[in-house]
User: Fold this.
Amino acid sequence: MRLYVDSAKCSGCNACRVACSLNLFGESNPKKSALVIEPHFPEPGIYNVKVCTQCGDCAKVCPTEAIKLDEKGAYFVDFAECNLCEACVPECPEGVMFLRAELANTAWKCDLCGDCVSVCGTSALWIAEIEAVTA
Amino acid sequence: MNGYGGQILRVDLSSGKISKELTPTQLARDLIGGRGFGIYFLLKEVPKGADPLGPDNKMFISSGPISGMLIPGGGKCDWTTKAPLTGGYASSSMGGHFSAEMKYAGLDSIILEGISPKPVYLFIDNDKIELRDASDLWGQGTIAVEKMFKEKFGEEYQIAVIGPGGENLVSYACINHDYGRQAGRGGVGAVMGSKKVKAIVIHGTNSIPVADTQAYRTAGKALYKACKDAEGLKDWTRYGTVITEIWCDEVGALPTRNFSAGSFEGGKNLSGPVMREKIVVTDKGCFGCPSPCGKYSRSKKYGISVEGPEYETVGLLGSNLGIDDIEAVAKANLLCDDLGIDTITAGNAIGWAMECYEKGILTRKDTDGLELKFGKVEETFTVIEKIARREGIGALLSEGVKRASRKIGKGSEKFAIHVKGMEQSAYATHNATAMLLAYMTCDVGAHHNRAWAITYDIQVGREKVVPEKVARVIWLQNFRPMFDVLGGCRLQWVELNIDRELYVPALEAITGIHRSWEDMEKVGERIWNLTRMYWARENEGFGRAWDMPSPRFYQEPPKTGPNKGQITKLEDVNLLLDMYYEQRRWDANGLPKPETLVELGIQELVV
Assistant:
């Protein structure tokens, strides 16, 4: 399973990002969320949303094995084992592996909790099985 | 303090001194936030008789306890000041992402006082707060300035900016934010201009403390679920506020040719579905909104993009000017936004001028050679530019219709559509007595959002003048503005019809204080009385006469449309006020009785 997004449906409200920070950290702070919303205004007037595909590239390079796989197939950061080395961040093809030391004493990423989906009023986000990649 | 940024930022522009105070706990308990904080500071800190554009006036910018939280629509920001347009109370509510960012920067209110010796912008990045030179930005449009700041600092920064309208002290200049959200009414942009503050740039990375994280998460998600399950969500999100246009046209509430009628023969070209099909590019939501009414549009004909138009703009810059092209309305909307003037007052001022022109009260000599008739599109664009720059006919119109009509005379006062000097928003009220009363008694002038009572008129009989209607208006006035106090949006309740009781546990989990809606309506009533006392304090002889609507609504029945020939009688206008004052426990002149103030526990705030 993974999170999917249809950026054309996003209205840039950021409810998903607050819900995400509340799940990951128990805090209300969109800067501590695992989704990225890039507004492109005044032209062309669209939002581009980046979400985790659960590809696992981050986990492969983590020297402390802090990024683990849970039973539903989601990679999550075990905060206690992250040593802030930042190796995972450049590996993420979507730019949704985060480390901002001024905000949190750990790296973080999407753990597929689904709260972003539940608060999105325009149904831009959903969770589904990972589609097989066809050449 | 749970649910709050915790601090109030004070910027003395005259000296450049920047300081912070803790948000008073008692103030948060008594008046909660947002416009509650605004009226408290306005009464306390701005001396009686202050010139709205002088050094004694102040700007109070406030978030509220649900701003920036997991609550639908928690992105409203209140701008309170003494209004340049009316000389009374101004409280303008701005959507977007600004109030959320204030909270993340630890701020509940920003107070701007004094006057800067040179153009500046206020830069806030958590605790790093500076006044920076803005000389090179002075004169630029709002869109270019916001874009420049976003490119310079990043998308996480939120920007509020004034345009040439604010710099030139147009009495209805607005604040622009997020490429198309405004603090629009009353001239808040002119106050910024008078203080030489071109913009505020804000960024914060703090988390907002809450009393009970788990209960808050549960209650917040329940609110979102209610919105997503709502029957009205799909159409409301698809068409936004313009969904109202067809209905207004059908019931005779669509302002047409300077409110001379309530139905427009070109109305079908300005509807929500037409707009969606022709120009809408994307939905554009304010912070945390599951039902984004904001529409971002592109006109191929004019080669422009704009957020909107909203219904109010369609009504005032479309039908009210006899213009039936949604793309022309979109372009006029963008001009107003970029130049930084309020579309509602601008549409009234131009409509009034068009009527003057058609009646021969204004001639080509007065209009800089423009043939300023209803329906004229290019002339409308030109006049908007002239207003923002206060050139030629624009200088007269930049005063608003009350002052402009007093200058011109010749009977033009009778079709200057305003209450207390603020032009009426987009509901024609020839025969809708509850909505008429809502405009007459609204605390900033003729604005609709305190009590949107027009559906109630239709429901109970529009011409009826009965105590139930008055009670409904009062209840709406006490209740609806509470969303402006909480720092959130009322439209999930209004348009999606969600159960308002769902907010109660959410607010309690956030702040740790239980408040029923009954309790919050009491706060709303206190604030309503405080704003009334502010008008009385600032205006010699303030009273009943100030609540009278434009004579058009009791003397000139529409000649066309579904309510052709229908009009409210003057005696009914007076009866509405009698009943209103009695139910408000005010005297016959419309002033709160001393015992009413004591009963509400606010007598000390208005000394």
